[in-house]
Amino acid sequence: MKGVLDRVEDGIAVILVEETNEQFTIPVANLPTGSKEGMWFTLATKEDSYYIVAIDKQKTAAQTERINTLQQKLQKKRRTSKFKRKK
Question: What pTM, to 2 d.p., does this model score?
Answer without folding.
Answer: 0.77
